[in-house]
Amino acid sequence: MMTDDIDARRESLIKGLCFYLNENPDILVQEYMDMTEATALTAIEKTTVGIYVSRDTPGNDCPDVGIIIEGVVVLQDLDSVALAVAMLFGLFYSLNMSYPSQLRYTFEVIQKVVMELDATQLSRKAQNLKTKLLM
What we know:
This protein is of the alpha+beta class and 135 residues long. It has a domain at 6-96. It is 47% helix and 19% strand. Strands 1-2-3-4 form a 4-stranded mixed beta sheet, sandwiched between helices. β3 (64-69) and β4 (72-78) form a beta hairpin. α5 packs across α6. The longest helix has 15 residues, at 6-20. The chain is globular, with a radius of gyration of 15 Å.
């Protein structure tokens, strides 16, 4: 399905990066549809780190996007998943938190390849992606 929505394209790119690095994008972005508030709250409380997207219906153009850390919603009402990923990266970096082990390569690529922060030592996966991007 083709779309002109730049936010949907950015979200697909972020999820594609997870897939490319053999990581599960559902750990990073958890989508909740047609859930009661109590059910969603229970699921959020079980989340260590991630982004939630709450939609009333599939394809809803105005989802509620937020960031969860240690089962607590720390940011909410964000405009898009891409903005939430940037904000989550900023929280990791500013609070000196470790990346979740299930998403370490995704955040390493964002940090060292995209943002070029501490880009001297790359894992093999990140180095291979950087090499392919520069060819």
